[in-house]
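hiii so um. not sure if this is the right channel but i have a protein structure encoded as tokens and i wanna go backwards to a sequence. like what aa goes where. can anyone help
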């Protein structure tokens, strides 16, 4: 949006407040240009009317204004709630302030493993609210088309990266080696024991793999209670496909559930 804003003005439409059942939450926004738009406030008749109102304001230099919309029969929407939309004309000088204002909260996520599933996950996670660090012990493993917001990190031994992860990181473990996977999980358990700041640790693999890992981790001194905090297999239940893209979608959904459960 900010690149386009440098060339032409727009109207920023944001959800200022809500009551009851509504399509999107407060803080959601869309930018309406003369011949296009970015973002969405939920679709349907509400968004259609908001786009028309925003375009009527383009070039009119009108001050910011809020409007109330009841999502009932008059809008042909049966949500029943109320949305307050704020309209604000924006142009190139507003770009820097908007960059900070509109940046969605992002949750730190460490992905260990540069294989096919890891690559599929980076593509699925790119538009989602995660600050992704992709870690592998091998040089030259990260593809050239890795999304620009992904931080690629080489670590050898790979588990040495665990102590330096951002506080609150969710962790996915899917390296090329079961031995590496075991060391990474052990490092995560050790950090949890010391700091308790890794809310989700997920390990790719079967129940058989986890049974083996559980025995080996018990031999390293980790308790049943500590091991119960590891998620393996990963991915929302009921999705059985093994294709990297299918696994990636199932795991991304599980991560989003993890965020919701901690809010």
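sure thing!! here u go:
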């Amino acid at each position: 949006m900010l690149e386009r804003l440098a060339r032409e003005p727009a109207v920023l439409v944001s959800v200022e407040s809500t009551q009851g059942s509504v399509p999107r939450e407060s803080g959601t926004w869309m930018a309406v240009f003369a011949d296009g738009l970015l973002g969405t406030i939920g679709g349907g008749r509400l968004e259609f009317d908001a786009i028309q109102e925003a375009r009527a304001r383009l070039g009119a230099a009108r001050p910011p204004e809020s409007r109330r919309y009841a999502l009932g029969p008059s809008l042909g929407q049966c949500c029943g709630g109320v949305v307050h939309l704020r309209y604000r004309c924006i142009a190139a000088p507003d770009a820097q302030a908007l960059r900070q204002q509109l940046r969605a909260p992002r949750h730190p996520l460490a992905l260990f493993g540069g294989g096919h599933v890891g690559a599929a996950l980076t593509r699925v996670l790119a538009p989602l609210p995660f600050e992704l660090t992709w870690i592998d012990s091998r040089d030259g493993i990260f593809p050239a088309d890795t999304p620009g917001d992904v931080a690629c990190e080489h670590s050898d031994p790979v588990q040495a990266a665990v102590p330096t992860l951002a506080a609150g990181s969710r962790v996915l473990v899917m390296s090329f080696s079961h031995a590496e996977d075991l060391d990474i999980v052990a490092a995560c358990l050790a950090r949890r024991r010391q700091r308790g700041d890794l809310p989700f640790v997920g390990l790719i693999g079967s129940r058989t793999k986890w049974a083996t890992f559980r025995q080996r981790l018990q031999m390293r001194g980790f308790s049943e209670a500590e091991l119960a905090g590891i998620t393996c297999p990963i991915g929302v239940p009921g999705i059985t496909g093994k294709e990297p893209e299918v696994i990636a979608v199932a795991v991304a959904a599980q991560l989003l559930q993890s965020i919701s459960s901690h809010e």
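oh and The mean pLDDT is 91.
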